[in-house]
């Protein structure tokens, strides 16, 4: 296979697509399968507009939080009902776009879907099929620079998810409460492990010794940042599992295992 690299850009010139002998194609393939499956599931659930609330135990799935459509069950609409009830508008339209943009612009996810969907490049030391490379200097990828602002929105949404979780404990303790709690902890860990959060906490400081609290915070966020990839996938799993469990209880497929109350 002829090289797809360009000497004028200073990129390596080899005649083969790659000299690697390992299964370099496996990670992008798994990423493609995993991200596609999650997007399909999340899209179906967001537009299903049913089985998202268990009133008896105050369980609200994160895919519908906050529920602000006039079609929402009134008890589930903790922040009011002001969006129209139409099939093409998810009940949580106020927050879902910001969550999507936060994940799309996340440094790890950018690496994952650039390689899995655009093959840019498919793996390290593997030639990509594109003749031109402009990085993130043109629209729409220029919008990746807005990641910091989407982080602020994601932090607010994590507060809302935390509120939903705390509210569910007012009816007692069941398996659903534990699942909601685990999901919220995972979401916070992923959110604050973000590179933007690390920069916000420790940025613009020339002398850490003069800012001991910010230094300790920066160290904590840095440790989480080292696990950002794992947390990114973990939260996809906890979000889907939490939603599926609440859907199953709401639909009457299973009963919530109660511990207290």
TrEMBL record:
It comes from the Bacteria. The chain crosses the membrane at residues 24-44, 88-109, 146-163, 169-190, 231-254. Keywords: Membrane, Transmembrane, Transmembrane helix. This is Succinate dehydrogenase membrane anchor subunit. It comes from Pseudonocardia broussonetiae.
């Amino acid at each position: 296979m002829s090289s797809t690299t360009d000497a004028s850009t200073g990129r390596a010139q080899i005649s083969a697509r790659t000299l690697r002998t390992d299964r370099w194609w496996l990670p992008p393939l798994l990423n493609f399968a995993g991200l596609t499956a999650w997007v399909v599931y999340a899209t179906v659930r967001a537009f299903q507009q049913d089985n998202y609330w268990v009133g008896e135990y105050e369980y609200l799935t994160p895919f519908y939080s906050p529920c602000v459509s006039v079609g929402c069950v009134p008890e589930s609409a903790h922040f009011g009902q002001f969006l129209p009830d139409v099939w093409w508008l998810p009940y949580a339209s106020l927050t879902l776009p910001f969550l999507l943009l936060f994940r799309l612009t996340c440094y790890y996810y950018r690496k994952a879907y650039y390689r899995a969907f655009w093959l840019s490049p498919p793996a390290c030391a593997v030639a990509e099929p594109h003749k031109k490379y402009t990085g993130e200097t043109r629209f729409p990828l220029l919008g990746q620079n807005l990641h910091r602002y989407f982080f602020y929105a994601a932090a607010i949404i994590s507060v809302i998810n935390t509120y939903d979780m705390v509210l569910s404990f007012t009816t007692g303790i069941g398996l659903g409460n534990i699942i909601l709690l685990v999901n919220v902890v995972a979401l916070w860990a992923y959110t604050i492990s973000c590179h933007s959060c690390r920069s916000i906490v420790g940025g613009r400081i020339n002398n850490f010794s003069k800012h001991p609290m910010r230094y300790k915070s920066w160290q904590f966020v840095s440790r989480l940042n080292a696990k950002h990839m794992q947390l990114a996938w973990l939260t996809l799993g906890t979000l889907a599992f939490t939603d599926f469990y609440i859907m199953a209880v709401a639909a009457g497929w299973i009963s919530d295992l109660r511990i207290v109350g």
